[in-house]
Amino acid sequence: MKAKLLLFAIFAANLTACTPKIQLETPKEGITINMNVVVDHKIEVSMDEKSRTMIKTVDMDKEK
After folding, report:
1. Confidence check: pLDDT of 11 > 90
2. Which residue from 58, 37, 38, 55 is spatially nearest to 47, judged by alpha carbons?
3. Residue 47: CB partners within 8 Å, gap ≥ 6?
4. pLDDT at 14
């Protein structure tokens, strides 16, 4: 019985003695991300004929 208890104590001591140590450290310099961004856009406006004639008549009235 004493031998089993002694073996268990040695086994438990070995398990606690071999625990790994994990450390997390932040970098001393920040992370830099260099990006080149190009934005192209194209806007198309389409009108029906009724709207187009209405705008033309309003423009003609302004010219007078």
Report:
1. no
2. 55
3. 55
4. 75
